[in-house]
Design a protein that fits this description.
The protein is an alpha/beta fold and 123 residues long. The protein contains two helices and nine strands. Strands 1, 2, 3, 4 and 5 form a five-stranded mixed β-sheet that branches. The protein has a two-stranded parallel sheet with strand order 6-9.
Length: 123
């Protein structure tokens, strides 16, 4: 699938007009010109920017890693955060017991081991 915008921002803060090629939720290529015979979705006036990374997150929406260091809390945050532009995050515990910290690390590790690299996964 190709997506067109006049306002595509790359991580190095360069703004371009063109076409992004997407495959399974991953950006595969950028074209200044529409490839011959290709269809595209027109997002002319939208701003397309890289996803935000939240490097210190106790919870979001109905997922609270601080109060519930479980896989369920992390999966809930993974489902809800992309809707506000956050594509990566570090689930952060609060002041708690070592047993709770270890449980959180274990349950988060189980989720990480089941997702595809480089792709936002929805539980």
């Amino acid at each position: 699938m190709l997506l067109y915008s006049k306002n595509i921002y790359f991580p190095n803060q360069i703004k371009r007009e063109g076409y992004l090629e997407l495959e399974d939720g991953i950006i595969k290529n950028f074209y200044k010109e529409l490839p011959q015979g290709a269809d595209y979705k027109d997002y002319s006036d939208y701003h397309v920017i890289p996803g935000f990374i939240d490097q210190h997150l106790h919870g979001w929406g109905t997922g609270s890693y601080n109060n519930d260091p479980s896989g369920k809390a992390v999966r809930t945050m993974k489902e809800q955060l992309p809707s506000v532009g956050v594509t990566s995050f570090l689930a952060t515990s609060g002041a708690t017991t070592l047993d709770d910290v270890y449980e959180g690390i274990k349950s988060t590790g189980e989720i990480l081991n089941t997702q595809k690299p480089g792709m936002v996964q929805h539980a």
